[in-house]
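Worked Example 4.2. Consider the chain below.
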Amino acid sequence: MRAVVQRVSEARVHVGDRLVAEIGRGVLALVAIGRDDGPDDVHYVAGKIRDVRLFDGEGGQHMHRSVGEVGGAVLVVSQFTLYGDVRHGRRPSFIAAASPADARTLYEDLVRELQQTPLAVATGEFQAMMRVELVNDGPVTILIDSARQF
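Applying the procedure from the previous section yields the following structure tokens:
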């Protein structure tokens, strides 16, 4: 499972003309599910999104507090293209991405695990063509990959 996590001052998702989700200060997590992912990957990525220290602390300590510690929110957006492989040819291959049915299950598990915390959690719309707007604060962008946890 891969997640690109961005510290944001605000973010929102539209599907067509409809506003689907919106957060203020927090993190935007663009999440992709790999074909070999399972519950351990969900747990690992949820914990990292929840606990990674991306926010400054008191006294100017850089990257000293997590999203929960600053009262921030999490916006989770599915983005299978994070598994796009462009090593061969000009068109990305998505062979490493999970099937839509398998990906939906694990994506929903990830969202549920984050919702079981005190964090405010919003989501995009799975498998929809979305327009994601964000103001990246810093900018701060981190890649989390459960296959690289050891």
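Helices lie at 39-51, 100-115. The two ends are 14 Å apart (CA to CA). Compare this with Example 4.1 before moving on.
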